[in-house]
Amino acid sequence: MSDSKTATSAHPSAPTGRQVAVLGGGSFGTAMTKVLAENGHTVRFWMRNETQVEEVRTQGTNTRYMPDVVLAGDIRPTTDFREAVHGAEAIFLAIPSKAFRDVIREHAAEFEDGQVVVSLTKGIEKDGFRLMSEILQEEIPRTRIGVLSGPNLAQEIAERDLTATVIAAKEPEVRNRVQQLLGCDYFRVYANVDVYGVELAGALKNIYAIVAGMASALSLGENARAMLITRSLAEMSRFAVSLGANPMTFMGLAGVGDLIVTCTSSKSRNFRIGYAVGKGQELEDAVAELGQVAEGIRTLQLVKDKAEDMGVPMPLVGGLHKILYSDASIHDVINGLMTAVQNSDVEFILPRTLSS
Ligand SMILES: NC(=O)c1ccc[n+]([C@@H]2O[C@H](COP(=O)([O-])OP(=O)(O)OC[C@H]3O[C@@H](n4cnc5c(N)ncnc54)[C@H](O)[C@@H]3O)[C@@H](O)[C@H]2O)c1
Ligand SMILES: O=P(O)(O)OC[C@H](O)CO
Known about the structure:
By secondary structure, the protein is α/β, with parallel strands linked by helices. It is built from 15 helices and 12 strands.
């Protein structure tokens, strides 16, 4: 947290009588709980660790994940899943992608018909390349599903820094409800119907944040950073469009917005992993030191395989994979990228003609 700020809660708004649930007691679950509680809603906050529940209940803190944050309002931490979701009009899931399906499957019977269930998770499942909304659709089709994604560093939201996000859902009622529940004077919620594009953008940008962290560690310069972010956008939208996403989604907050923040901020865990590796640290050591999830590492492997299967050129993904898993030197990979065939800038104007 920056020195000049405190993340103590504002006086919560008057109680609204609305009941919501947040599942997952890490950084983002804590930040979203804080927003919802400050907005006057009753928040059932589910996590698996009883000690953490006790700390939230008695101190209003979650020091393992957000050491400087004090929570206020009607927050009911619990390890009891049913108690958390029963009667909640909206359920927000901040569980890492690796555990997402297991948690939902184990508790599928506890969700109620028509409940609004919103994934906050920015990752992809290994088997079948499923996004979290697809897992929800498969495991709990009785519910109404949405996805929230955007330039949303948990720490800044907890500090009430001005932030915007995107709720993507097919049903207008789901979009409207989430906008009402979460929106406030420091948190704006925009709407989109391209669920797949919004969700895939959130997962893909984590890969490029690792690359950007490395570039920062090597002091490659501001021109290089602009090149990297822009070519990342070209690459991730090329991949997503080939899977059916709307290219215009990548012009929005969930696309270029999230890419910018994650590729430029040392508050991003993915960026920090790239920075550490760029400074010479082993990947496993960097991950262990972080102690929180950096989804981009898993996503990189899955996207590389999928892109190769589909024949979609992704030179930045390929280059990062070589650095992390084939012992290629960062300088050799950069040299390879810089001397590859020079292709078109915006592929929607001048189509890419070569596969390099
Ligand atoms: N932190 C952010 O700024 C941020 C912003 C937007 C989206 N997200 C996304 O939210 C998701 C969660 O991220 P985070 O920042 O909260 O991660 P985190 O590492 O801070 O916390 C993860 C939480 O998930 C819990 N968890 C892990 N496995 C579990 C299981 N099997 N059952 C129950 N709980 C389990 C952990 O105990 C921990 O409380 C990620 O997909 C991330 O990309 C994070
Ligand atoms: O800390 P990261 O790298 O997981 O990024 C957090 C958010 O996704 C930024 O929008």
